[in-house]
Predict the 3D structure of the following.
Amino acid sequence: MKAKVGIDERGLRHDGRRPDEMRPVSMRVGVLANASGSAMVEFGKTKVLAAVYGPREPTQRFMVLPEKAILRVRYHMAPFSTAERKNPAPSRREVELSKVIREALEDVIITSEYPRTVIDVFVEVLQADGGTRAAGITAASLALADAGLPMKALVGSVAVGKISGTLVLDVDETEDSAGEADMPVAAAPDLGLITLFQLNGVLTEEEVNRGLSMALKAIEQLVAMQKSVLRQSYEVVEE
Amino acid sequence: MMKTYGQIVLPGDRLDSRVEAERPFVTEVGQEKVATVLGMISQREGKGFFVPLKSIYVPKPGDIVIGLVEAVAATSWNVDINSPYSALLYAQDFLGRSFNPSTDDLYQILKPGEYLKARIFAFDKTRSPLLTVQGEGLGKLIKGAVIDVPPAKIPRIIGKKRSMTALVEEKTGCSLFPATNGRVHVDCPSPELEAVAIMAIKLIEREAHIPGLTERVANFIEEERRRKGI
């Protein structure tokens, strides 16, 4: 039996969340010893791993820039991340998401400090249940901070969707496939900067504004959580 | 919210304009001073300083570094100095005389995987850093061990006026050289003492930001030596 998607008579979603409620979020930093920085972020059943390598001199020297570091992002879904096996070759969607994740992070990293180098960010989706790009951006930002790369601010991301005419926060896979619209947003609240704004579907101007404020409010909480996770990695460990 | 002394500071946090900090650990956003890396604010003589807990080593001319030979080129070695930029050490500099490719085999002099202590001779981000081993105490490291630590932790391993290094040296009988690029050379009278010195360095690395470290390190070394009977 398929789960009933929409808002029930109590005003709750198919998984019991209120429209403005996120899935349970968990974050961890320093999960990979070999990477310069790494992080794991879970939005409900969505599980994303981000690893940062560099800044380093690339093997292909032609690609460097004399005045700043280049940010390379690879968003990839593991073949086992979906219910049906996903072809591991990069799809058109993955290439596009790699680009939008890069653009969502580029504005906050101070790349001018490391000219002639590249910073590699690998975003690996281990389990996909909707909102993978948002979880990916959140994880990548955390991994960059863990790597010690100078950043003007941390970036958080979440998607707002529309189901049965109601705006809902942090859509999962079930809601995404049945919903009327999906609007991923990434922002750096400390800078008051929106670094990603996409919309798939149709929303009125009023809905866009309302959805955006829902997303920004949630991003503030996500960034506060990122900071608390980074802070905890330096907390006093009693012997 | 403005951060005060002793607090952990994160990228994007606003700092008091009086807090002294170097680039790139802080930046200006509008009129405000903003932290760019994870760090903490420490107070010395009534002044606030930003101490980074995460950093990436960028070579500065004059720095003494511990390099790892990566590859042998025609007239030079490529040396990993734990930085985004791989360094160059010319054979002429290492030999202290002109290099003759028909008689000098660079591979026999320095092999990939060997460590050396060198000084950054020149670097300006437009070309690879240039190393020199001309100077006292510089050259190939022939004994002891090299440990990698985050570059941000090196000032803590050194301590005020070299106090922490001196403490570890005194308690273990080893000789320590913490290089600014995040590598520590440890030369000990025995492998057992070397293991204790390495564990003490790892303790400093782990707890660099927690007050009362000197006492903990001293107690740790004494306890380890007593436990191991050395």
Q: What stands out?
A: The first strand of chain A starts at residue 25 and ends at 29. Helices of chain A lie at 92-106, 132-146, 173-178, 205-232.
